[in-house]
Amino acid sequence: MSRKIDLVVSTILLILPIFLLVQTFSDEFDVPTFGGDVGPTFAPRVYFIVWILLAGIAVFTAWRSQEADPSETGGTIRLGQLLSVMVIGTGTAIAMINVGFLFATIPGFFLFCLAFGYRNYITLLILSILGPIIIWAMFTFVFELLLPKSPWFNFF
Questions:
Q1: How far apart are CA 150 and CA 103, in angstroms?
Q2: How many whole angstroms separate alpha carbon 83 and alpha carbon 68?
Q3: C-alpha Rg value of the chain to the nearest Å
Q4: Which of these, 50, 54, 52, 44, lies nearest to 23 by C-alpha position?
Q5: What percent of the chain is modeled with pLDDT above 90?
Q6: What's the pLDDT score for residue 132?
Q7: Does residue 70 share a domain with residue 23?
Q8: Each residue of 121-145: b (16+ CB within 10 Å) or e?
Q9: Four-residue CA torsion sign, 135, 141, 144, 149
Q10: Domain total for the chain?
Q11: Which tens digit of pLDDT belongs to each residue from 41-53?
């Protein structure tokens, strides 16, 4: 049963970005650029392509996998963990609007990793600070796409 679920979910996760990527080439998204080299659909197209590649790997992995013995996998669904990750993700998204990308994603990433059971606190703290800063710098200086700013610090 697990293999069938994996195949269905990964196939849906493969079909969805293909559909969305095709939509970005429609006339509704054909808008002039904001003075830059690329239009506003550049970043979503890149994300959809990465999503398609990762979903393709998931489909291939699910297709090649053997049906697992339920006694080996434990057969339990961690509903508490799922709900906590959903709350952390929603809280981070809402906080991003109010306090900016960095101030929301640093604690969000930290809590997300804790919810998945990662307990090396020194490494987790370093990654929770450096990861969002690197992502912010990449978007700001490489892609030139501004992420939500903090209302207190408007450096860039």
A1: 7
A2: 25
A3: 19
A4: 44
A5: 36
A6: 92
A7: yes
A8: eeeeeebbeeebeeebeeebeeeee
A9: positive
A10: 2
A11: 777 888 999 999 9
